[in-house]
Amino acid sequence: MKNIRKYVAIACLAMQGSVPVLAQDKTFTVQVDQPIAPINQNMWGIFFEDINMGADGGIYAELIKNRSFEFFRPFMGWKNLGPVAEANYLILNRQSDHESNPRFLRVNTTKGTSKPIGLQNEGFRGMGVKTGVGYEFSVMYRQKTSGVSLRVELVDTLGNVLGKGMLIPSNTGTGWHSQSMTFTSNKTDAKAKLNIWFEGQGEIDLDMISLFPTDTWKGRKKGLRADMVQALADLKPGFLRFPGGCIVEGFDLSQRFQWKKTVGAIEDRQLIINRWNFEFGHRLTPDYFQTFGLGFYEYFLLAEDIGAAPLPILNCGMACQFNTGELVPLEELDPYVQDALDLIEFANGAVTTKWGKLRADMGHPEPFNLKMLGVGNENWGPQYIERLAVFQKALKAQHPEIEIVASSGTDPEGERFVYLDKELRAMGIDIIDEHYYRSPDWFLNNAKRYDNYDRQGPKVFAGEYASHSKNMFRSEYRNNWEAALSEAAFLTGLERNAAVVQLASYAPLFAHIDGWQWTPDLIWVDNLKTYLTPSYYVQKLYSTNKGTHVLPLLSEGQAVAGQDDCYASAVLDKERDELIIKLANTSATEKSIVFDIRGVKKLNGEAIHIVLQHDDPLAINEVAKAPLVLPQERKFPIKGSKISVLAKAQSFNVIKIKL
């Protein structure tokens, strides 16, 4: 009751205009007319990796699994329908003619019974289909003579037909042809399947059997899942880092990410196994492959769509050092370096160049305005420095305008980190990529991490971070409030040190509730919906309130970084003439904070107070349930230069004040 009376008293005084400073209040000063440093307008961004079914089965809207029969087991994802005889289906391999997509299916309906035969595809843990939405079925085929038609139907788990259509292949001869048709679903179902019945008598070859919803992002054919992209767009990210992550390195170099195999015609992109298929024994995912329907062109296009600067990461000639540690000899590194140079041409080159022409042929003659390029991911040791030096020399000679992002290894401290940090600074690398997956306590204790970093040296990219709470009872949903609040507190330190920290992104980004390998994750999805975690809302409050300049925010002359369990930062948005204060109260008690705003004559008008809070540190926004942790916003009048804010226990607060 005492706290309630205090809150009411403060609220009432705020309504009257000025608020007296109570004895128990903490006072923080904000000096509006003394900006410390400009803030990189691309600072808060997105890290994307195809983990947890983030691409295939996730943001890439293809509903058919193993559409070209290129998985390790060619029929994985498919099931026979009807009285199928042995000779009805054959998998043929044209390796010498089509190395990137060698397999195709030959269907012969003249063998065995006269009854219809078919195939069923299970999708990625089922297919999410929605009432009234159109679904485009397409296929590549080859037939000498007409005779076989494809009756296609979506069915629910009970076998009820949700939508259907007929595709009658119209071309004959020796070449391959593409054909499509669209039908509509009459029901919403998260676990639908697709049946393909082969009617008539004859033989036909099939490849790239595909099903896409028509309500993709921006309505692009065979595009991305709209709700997942919208969640990214709502963050207003400054950059998009892609395609990872550990998949850049590969288990060995044969499984590394090669960007040139992910562009051009979809049917010519070479599928590989996803390393998260087998990486974790407790979460083996034998049907996890990369089809590269979401390839480098689509990544660049996605970045452009959501207003983010592209930040691709390339293999540096090293496989994952936790797996094989396989290396390319230095004398054989040239093809890897050339891949980097060619990628810059693909992104920025004129349409008269080889790779610029390919970009234009794919539908984007304008350059993508690439300005940053990562070389290596979580690599370490002298062997990394040796290879990075080769890349640096070539890239700076031909493209001095491109900033190089380099790895500081897997951890934010220790022998590896110290060695790399020293070497990278000596090399004059533009941006050092630091990663930290740590406990909430680590994040709280490291809010001052960058306070003493060299302002004249390389900039920092907080490339992968997430607070890993150990006090969670369901491991797959570990994005609890305790973890998110510790991240919010830590990020005040990143913001306060924007002179050093130029980029920051949470990781991993997406996780499918039925196909995850790693937790926690920023955004959870099922086949139909997107679910936003408390950590997501923390990231959004930073990225949508980034300001243009860092301001001093002090308590007794010191940065607020853990004193009395408070963490705070302040920024000025010169474009909006707005002061934005961020305050994390990590204690179990509420606190009354007075902000003494200096450097302005007076304040009049309204302030906005946004609160993200929950009393239970283990609170989560559980999939398929109403979220527990959501931002709440209120407005209050202000007058004078001192503003009192009641910070609830275990809360993250954003206060926005017009100047």
Automatic annotation (TrEMBL):
Pfam families: Alpha-L-AF_C (PF06964), ASD1_dom (PF22848). It catalyses: Hydrolysis of terminal non-reducing alpha-L-arabinofuranoside residues in alpha-L-arabinosides. Keywords: Glycoprotein, Hydrolase, Signal. SUPFAM superfamilies: (Trans)glycosidases (SSF51445), Glycosyl hydrolase domain (SSF51011). GO terms for biological process: L-arabinose metabolic process. Residues 463-651 form the Alpha-L-arabinofuranosidase C-terminal domain. Its EC number is 3.2.1.55. One of its GO terms (molecular function) is alpha-L-arabinofuranosidase activity. Residues 1-23 form the signal peptide. Belongs to the glycosyl hydrolase 51 family. This is non-reducing end alpha-L-arabinofuranosidase. The lineage of its organism: Bacteria, Pseudomonadati, Bacteroidota, Sphingobacteriia, Sphingobacteriales.
